[in-house]
Structures are given as structure tokens and as C-alpha cells.
Amino acid sequence: MPDLRLVIGNKRYSSWSLRPWLALVHHGVPFEEILIPLYREGSKEAILRHSPSGKVPALIDGGTTVWDSLAILEYLAERFPERDLWPRDPARRALARSISAEMHSGFASLRSELPMDLAPPDLGRSRSDATEADIARVSTIWRQCRAAAGAQGPFLFGAFGAADCMYAPVVLRLDRYRVPLDPACRAYADAILDLPAMRRWVEAGMAEPWVLTF
Q1: To 10 degrees, what angle do helices 183-193 and 196-206 make?
Q2: What pTM did the predictor assign?
Q3: Which of 55, 73, 175, 199: disulfide with 162, CB 3.0–4.6 Å?
């Protein structure tokens, strides 16, 4: 049995769970997946058996438990330094951590108006000025990072890393709601969507029997 256990919610809806799951799967780190369907009778109690916050995701490594997606990514970066989850260059690493923290704490309007859902595209949803501003900011971040990465790879800092994990749920949201993207951002979004790990997550999420209404 793998040393690591990752507690997650529904793949169809849990954007926070996606982030560390992608890091582990893409980088080939063995782990046991514990999926707890959200917003059902007993869900909170089941999660509390693994996570003191009562929320997903949570990573259990022997006697160590780490919760919150960004904290888990930081833990994995320390646990598996050879995977280079953060850029090795200090300046690029600082940028990667900054944009990851910005995603972690911000973009409330985008999250609210464009909820995570892997269902077929929702083409009729309107967007407020605040959400349009969030989308514009995300696009600026992607262009800035991609311009610096150049030909080193298709992701934010060339190779797939923690910052990409943080923005992957936004890629899914923008794709589902058919938000227009400029060519550079579209290329980045397509690179994320084409990841074998991402395709595996989406396929599993669409096969889940649980349906939530927002």
C-alpha cells in the first residue's frame, strides 16, 4: 500500500481536490485515493475522520496530515524535491508562489459565477464586471508566465508544476463556460486539458453518480 493517502471530494465538483491530485498523478507519485462524496448525509463526519478542518483535500503521510490544497503542494514539493514542483530559479519560484497564493485567496467572483462542474458546457450564463475583471487578471498572469517560459514547455513555467495545479480548475471553468481566450491563453488551456492526468480526472468525474445543484 502506498505511504500517501489523499482524501478528496467529488471529481465533478471539487476544484480544491483536483490540485494536489494532479500533482501526484502527473508526477507518478503512488498514493491511495479516498473519495468522500460532498454535501451528503454523513459527509462532514467522514471527512473529519481524516482532516481536522472538516474539508477536502487532505494528505496523510504516515503520522503527518496536511490539509488545504496549497499547503499540500508545498509539502509535496519538500517531500519530492526531484519532481521540481516549483521552478528552481529563485525569481521564477517567487513568481510561481505569488500567483499561486493569489489564486488561493482571490478571484471570488469568478468562483461564484462560474462554479466548478464537469457537466456539458453552460453557454447561457452571464458574467458580471467583477468576474470579467477576474478573467482578465487570470489571462494577464498566464501571458506573463508563458512569455517568460518561452520554448521551455507549454505550461506556466515550462514544465508542469504547482502553479499549474493551482490554475487547472480555472482552465476547466473557462472551458465549460466557453469563455473566449486569446491565442496564448488558449494554447495554455489546451495544454492543461490535454494532460493525461487531467483527462483521467474529467473522465472519472463525469462517471460519478452524484449530482449537485447550485
Answers
A1: 70
A2: 0.95
A3: 73
